[in-house]
Design brief:
The protein is an alpha+beta fold. It has one domain. Helix content is 29%, strand content 20%. The chain is built from nine helices and 13 strands. The strands form three sheets. It has a six-stranded mixed β-sheet with strand order 7-13-12-10-8-9, with helices on both faces. A five-stranded mixed β-sheet has the order 4-5-6-1-11, sandwiched between helices. A two-stranded antiparallel ribbon has the order 2-3.
C-alpha cells in the first residue's frame, strides 16, 4: 500500500493527506504536547522516518530514520487556515517524518488538535492510534492503558435497528435518470472549476429504537444513506442517478488499530459496494438489505494480492522511474471505472482521548484524501454515542455550500434510516 501510494503521488499536484481533528474543552500546553508526540514516535520507529534520496534506476523507494523537526508540533492562531493546510499541504516526505500536529482555538472555546499525515506513511487507523497514545503520554496515563477501539474487520457497530430486507410498498425512491453505461456514475458538479479541497464537519446523534431481531451496522446505514443522498442529488441536477459504486476501506488489522500490538502504517484494502438503486415500489429497506449482505461478504472475504497495479508495483525488475508513470497512467485509464464516492468508517472510538487538564475530546473527525474524478469522500466515526461525519470534496466538483447541502441531506436520511430500519 505504501509503495502504491508513493508511485501515484505527485507532490506538486496531490494533497494526499489524512486529516484527524479533535476538539478539547481546555487549553493544551504546546511544549508538553511536543514532548508527548516525540515520545510516541520514539515508540513507533517505522513512523519516525523520511523518504531517502532515490534515483530513477532504484527498484523501490526507501525510508530512513529521521529526527522530529521543531515545527512538527506547533500552535496556530486560527482554525480555518490550519484546517485548510491539513487538507491541502501534505508534510513533505523527504524533510522528516511526514506528520504534523497543530493546535488552534476551537469554536466556542477550548482547543482543536489537528493531526495531518501523508497517506503514503499512515492510514486513518494509524493516525487515531497516534493521537490516542499522545493523549496517554500527555496526561501521564500508562501507554496502552485504554487499548481497544473499533471491532475487527469481521464485525461492526450495531445501531439498534432491524435489517430484515423487507419491502415497503409506500416507499418512494428518487426517480431515476437512465445511465448510458454500466460505469459508475459521477456526482453532479455544483461549482466553478477551482483548485483545492474543502471539508464539511457535522455531528449527529445515533437514533435508537430498541427494535429486536437482526440489526444493521452503523456502517451499513451510512453506506445506504450516502447512496440515497447522491441519487437524490443527481436527480435534482438532471444527472444520471446510477449506478452508484461505493468504495469502502476495510481495515486488515484483526482487532482494529487500537488493539495491543496492532501494526502501524497503511493496513487496509478497498471493497466496492454495488447495490444499485432501490425500485420505487421497494424502498430503502431493500437497498439496506443488499448493502448489508455485500459488506458482510466483503469483510469475510480473504485479502487478495491487489491485482495488476499491485503486481506492477512489486515487480523487482522495473525501476521507480518506470513504475511511477506506468502506475499513474493505469490510474488515468481506469478513471471511468473509479467508484462514485469513498465511504470510510472507523467505527466506535472507545479510547477516552483524555488530555489531562485540557480534558477529554468531546468531538473527533477524520477525513480521507480525495482527488478527481471521484472528488468526494465521506468519513465517519462514533464518539460518545454521536456520529461525527466529514464530507471532504474537491472544489473542482463541489463548492462549500454544495458540500454542506450533501452533508445535511445525508444526515437527515441517515437519521430516518436509523429510526425505522430503512422502512421509508
Amino acid at each position: 500500500m505504501d509503495e502504491y501510494s508513493r508511485h501515484l503521488l505527485q507532490e506538486h499536484l496531490d494533497a494526499d493527506t489524512v486529516h484527524l481533528e479533535a476538539h478539547l474543552p481546555g487549553t493544551v500546553d504546546v511544549e508538553r504536547l511536543r514532548t508527548a508526540f516525540t515520545r510516541v514516535l520514539a515508540a513507533h520507529p517505522n513512523l519516525q522516518v523520511r523518504q531517502a534520496d532515490s534515483r530513477w534506476w532504484h527498484r523501490r523507494y526507501h525510508w530512513e530514520p529521521a529526527p522530529i523537526g521543531p515545527t512538527a508540533v506547533a500552535a496556530t492562531a486560527d482554525l480555518g487556515p490550519t484546517r485548510h493546510r491539513a487538507l491541502t499541504e501534505p508534510p513533505p516526505l523527504a524533510a522528516g517524518p511526514p506528520l504534523r500536529l497543530e493546535t488552534a482555538p476551537a469554536p466556542g472555546g477550548g482547543t482543536a488538535l489537528l493531526l495531518t499525515a501523508a497517506h503514503t506513511l499512515a492510514d486513518a487507523g494509524t493516525c487515531l492510534r497516534l493521537l490516542c497514545d499522545v493523549a496517554d503520554h500527555y496526561s501521564g496515563a500508562p501507554a496502552g492503558r485504554h487499548s481497544g477501539g473499533r471491532p475487527g474487520r469481521h464485525s461492526g457497530d450495531r445501531a439498534g435497528q432491524r435489517s430484515d430486507g423487507s419491502a415497503d410498498a409506500s416507499a418512494d425512491a428518487p426517480a431515476a435518470v437512465t445511465a448510458r453505461s454500466g460505469r459508475p456514475v459521477r456526482i453532479a458538479p455544483a461549482a466553478r472549476p477551482t483548485p483545492g479541497t474543502g471539508v464539511h464537519l457535522s455531528v449527529l446523534p445515533l437514533a435508537r429504537t430498541g427494535a429486536h431481531g437482526p440489526q444493521p451496522t452503523v456502517n451499513d446505514l451510512l453506506l445506504t444513506a450516502v447512496q440515497l443522498t447522491l441519487a437524490e442529488w443527481n436527480h435534482r441536477h438532471g444527472h444520471p442517478t446510477g449506478p452508484i459504486h461505493l468504495s469502502m476501506p476495510i481495515d486488515d488489522r484483526p482487532n482494529g488499530p487500537l488493539a495491543p500490538g496492532a501494526p502501524m502504517g497503511n493496513h487496509n484494502h478497498l471493497a466496492t459496494i454495488r447495490a444499485g438503486a432501490p425500485a420505487p415500489d421497494a424502498g430503502a429497506a431493500t437497498l439496506l438489505g443488499r448493502i448489508s449482505a455485500q459488506t458482510r461478504a466483503a469483510k469475510a472475504a480473504p485479502v487478495t494480492g491487489g491485482g495488476l497495479v499491485a503486481g506492477l508495483v512489486s515487480t523487482p525488475w522495473l525501476p521507480v522511474g518506470a513504475k511511477a508513470p506506468l502506475t499513474r497512467a493505469l490510474r488515468r485509464i481506469a478513471a471511468p471505472w473509479t467508484s462514485t464516492v469513498l465511504v470510510s468508517n472507523l467505527g466506535r472510538v472507545t479510547h477516552p482521548l483524555d488530555f489531562g487538564s485540557a480534558g477529554p475530546a468531546d468531538a473527533l473527525w477524520f477525513s480521507a484524501p480525495v482527488r478527481m474524478p471521484r472528488g468526494l469522500s465521506v468519513s465517519a466515526l462514533t464518539l460518545g454515542g454521536r456520529l461525527h461525519l466529514a464530507v471532504r470534496h474537491c472544489h473542482q466538483l463541489l463548492a462549500e455550500p454544495a458540500a454542506a447541502e450533501i452533508a445535511r441531506r445525508c444526515a437527515e436520511i441517515l437519521d430516518a434510516l436509523a429510526r425505522d430500519g430503512g422502512r421509508r
